[in-house]
Q: What sequence folds into this?
């Protein structure tokens, strides 16, 4: 009787374990297919690096960086931040539809920033490439 009971318990456990694995495998396949078919937006900057050359200390350098959404879903920029307080970014606040363009405007105050400069602006969005950067570089000459 114990042998039959042991055999029955093993059979039930084997059935439960194999059923659980098959269900998980199907769920993983469905999740992967959903992720592949639900591609998002993509941020691509025309010129991600701008070299402003040489400026005198105290000059303000401004640059508008244009990006295009090359993906298939709207892109929303959620955060745009500069590497230091002397650089101020502003950006398109509305969703950028696929195939359309948006802007990030960067203003660099060179006051007190003598020498070679490289300012990095980090852009966070809902796009497939969630974090991208643009750069402003050049040299600030003393007054």
A:
């Amino acid at each position: 009787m114990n042998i039959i009971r042991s055999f029955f318990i093993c059979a039930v456990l084997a059935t439960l374990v194999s059923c659980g694995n098959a269900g998980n495998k199907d769920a993983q396949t469905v999740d992967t297919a959903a992720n592949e078919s639900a591609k998002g937006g993509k941020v691509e900057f025309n010129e991600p690096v701008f070299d402003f050359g040489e400026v005198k200390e105290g000059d303000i350098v401004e640059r508008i960086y244009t990006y295009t959404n090359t993906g298939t879903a709207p892109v929303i920029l959620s955060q745009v931040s500069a590497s230091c307080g002397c650089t101020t970014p502003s950006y398109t606040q509305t969703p950028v539809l696929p195939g359309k363009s948006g802007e990030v405007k960067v203003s660099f105050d060179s006051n007190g920033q003598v020498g070679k400069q490289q300012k990095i602006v980090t852009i966070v969005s809902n796009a497939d490439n969630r974090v991208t950067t643009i750069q402003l570089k050049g040299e600030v000459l003393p007054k």
In short: Residues 43-141 form a domain with the Immunoglobulin-like fold (CATH 2.60.40.10). The beta strands are 43-45, 49-56, 60-69, 77-82, 87-91, 101-109, 115-125, 131-141.
